[in-house]
Amino acid sequence: MKPIRRGLAAAQGNLARIATDTLPTGFAGAAKCALFALACMSALIGGPAGGGGSLAAENLSLEMVYLTRAEKPRQSLSFVDPEVEDPGVWGARLALKDNQTTGRFLGHAYALREVEVPADGDIVAAFENEIASGHRYFIADLTHDDLLAIAQAEGADGTLIFNGRAGETDLRTATCFGHVFHTALSLAQRSDALMQFLVWKRWPDVFLLSGTGPGDAAFAEAIRQSARKFGAEIVADEAYAYSPIARRTDSGHIQVQTQMPVATQGAGDDYDVLVVSDENDLFGEYLAFNTYAPRPVAGTQGLAPMSWHRVQEQWGSTQFQNRFAKEAGRWMEERDYGAWLAVRAIGEAVTRTNTTDPAAVRAYLRSEDFALGGFKGVGLSFRTWNQQMRQPVILTNRRVLVSVSPQPGFLHQRNKLDSLGYDQPETSCNLQ
To answer: pLDDT digit string (tens) for 35-86?
Structure first.
């Protein structure tokens, strides 16, 4: 009887994922009908002694914690880009509904507790308070320092933390934790995805222009590392100290026309593409059509490597985008996608293992059996050595999907997706 239950549970998990992740609306309805049929079968097999008609041996209840810190919204570059409200949490909310769809047939109940720590609040105290309340699953929409703080907090090793935002390299190469999984792209995955494309296009000579704001140096270093990895050359490497511009005024645009050519003149015209590192979106958007030499712009602006963007329409993404827009009233952002992946990964693992035990869920997430449908054409999985999620990286401008990395010809002995980001020999992490 137990093998039958496990088989039906697996079938339900697959059908639920098909219904919500891949098929057009009409076919999704058919898949849901199949789920209903399976639910009837579970009632016949299990009966009252089997958990009220559930395929699960017993009803399971899991409340996840979405943990974030209050931040002042960043001013958008122009009026055509409205400020994004509640970034991150809407992805978790949508994924919760997806988990509940499967959970209703399996006797699994999912809930999401949303905790926002004040800007000057104690993130560790908030985290430890949730542990004391019995919570073990956390979706962390946090910056690097806050994530590091909770990962090292008392009792953290008995939890599972899913990082849906921070991309810093050290979290994947040196400071790794067995209880932290990364659904956010690493800086190395982004830079490798972009550099693969430039090499594939035979644009190997790069002018790297980096800002002086928070995060700019880190992404610039990732670009340098990727250039060495794939045989490109940084022919000019300069820093740009941004001079504030009244970006929403006529005089501001005049300043742009004078500042950007001067800032890019030093490299001359002996390069193929300008790669910009401007994580704070202060000046990078102004480089296109304002550089000294007529060259394409890529990096944090221009052609940008991203985990998700509203232009993504392949592999069932249109239905997914529409469902999110209906829920949130806006387009999905990268932080939303990172949180969605985290909640869905938890739901997938609980469905397959029929337990909420963190140790068992962790083991399944790290196994070869785990594959999450993420609307990218392939199953997404976690690397065992640093628990970074493998995923294709889309290359997009503001309105068009240009390409998806890995690029053709960039192979790997184990998994093609491992050509993006730090491979096992390139990191000191070796999680067991």
So the answer is: 444 444 443 333 333 333 334 446 899 999 999 999 987 666 665 666 778 8
In angstroms, the Cα distances linking 163 to 179, 242, 255, 413 are 11, 30, 39, 27
**C-alpha 237: how far from its chain's center?**
29
The identity of residue 325, as a single letter, is A
Q: Which residues pair with 66 in a beta bridge?
A: 114, 139
Cα–Cα distance list, 358 to 57, 64, 157, 160, 354 (Å): 18, 12, 10, 7, 12
Look at the block and give the residue holding tokens 């093998």: 3
Which residue has tokens 């960039």? 410
Q: According to the model, what pLDDT value does residue 79 have?
A: 58
Angle at 271 between CA 269 and CA 274, to 5 degrees: 100
Which of 124-128, 293-297, 313-317 shows the lowest per-residue confidence on average (mean pLDDT)? Answer: 313-317
Vertex 320: Cα angle to 383 and 79 (nearest 5): 100
Q: Is the peptide bond before 406 cis (omega within 30 degrees of 0)?
A: yes
Q: Measure the CA–CA gap between 291 and 312, rounded to whole angstroms.
A: 29
224 to 188, 210, 218, 232: CA distances (angstroms): 10, 11, 10, 9
Amino acid at 229: K
Q: How many CA atoms are closer than 13 Å to the CA of 157, on its beta-carbon side?
A: 5
> CB under 8 Å to 49, separation ≥6 — which residues?
none
How far is the CA of 353 from the CAs of 34, 270, 345, 381, in angstroms?
22, 57, 12, 16
Q: Point out which residues pair with 180 in neighbouring strands.
A: 161
- pLDDT tens for each residue of 408-425: 999 888 889 999 999 999
The counts of H helices and E strands in the chain are 12, 15
Nearest to 152, CA basis, from 116, 184, 173, 177: 177
